[in-house]
């Protein structure tokens, strides 16, 4: 256990040295590349204003997203009613989408359990 702790400390020390060595130039480069997104003056008041603008803009977009959701749902209902005319490509895409949703569900379950696999002894 002590050797693992020393090994972890060593890796943490290496990581912090890497951040000290390369962190400042990377930070400056990142700010320079994205200066068009920086609001002047960079104050707490400006941040609060931007946060409120973001919140209320997202709140105002709910009706648009609500309508888009119902349009998508109507499209799915139309496909379901006319499923006899469904092409193999459309069925394959639907199956892959369902598989992807299931995989994300499984990944979320694993993450929620703290990255443990229950029922498996590895």
From TrEMBL:
UniProt superkingdom: Eukaryota
UniProt entry keywords in alphabetical sequence: ATP synthesis, CF(0), Hydrogen ion transport, Ion transport, Membrane, Mitochondrion, Transport
Keyword Membrane set for record: yes
InterPro entries hit by this protein: ATP_synth_F0_gsu_mt
GO cellular component assignments: mitochondrial membrane; proton-transporting ATP synthase complex
A Pfam family the protein falls into: ATP-synt_G
Subcellular location: Mitochondrion membrane
GO molecular function, one term: proton transmembrane transporter activity
GO BP annotations listed: proton motive force-driven ATP synthesis
Family: Belongs to the ATPase g subunit family.
Protein name: Mitochondrial ATP synthase subunit G protein
């Amino acid at each position: 256990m002590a050797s693992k702790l020393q090994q972890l400390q060593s890796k943490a020390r290496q990581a912090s040295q890497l951040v000290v060595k390369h962190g400042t130039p990377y930070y400056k480069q990142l700010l320079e590349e994205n200066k068009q997104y920086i609001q002047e003056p960079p104050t707490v008041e400006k941040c609060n204003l931007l946060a409120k603008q973001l919140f209320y803009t997202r709140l105002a977009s709910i009706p648009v997203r609500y309508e888009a959701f119902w349009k998508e749902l109507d499209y799915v209902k139309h496909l379901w009613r006319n499923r006899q005319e469904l092409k193999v490509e459309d069925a394959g895409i639907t199956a892959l989408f369902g598989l992807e949703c299931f995989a994300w569900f499984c990944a979320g379950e694993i993450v929620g359990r703290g990255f443990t696999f229950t029922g498996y002894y590895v």
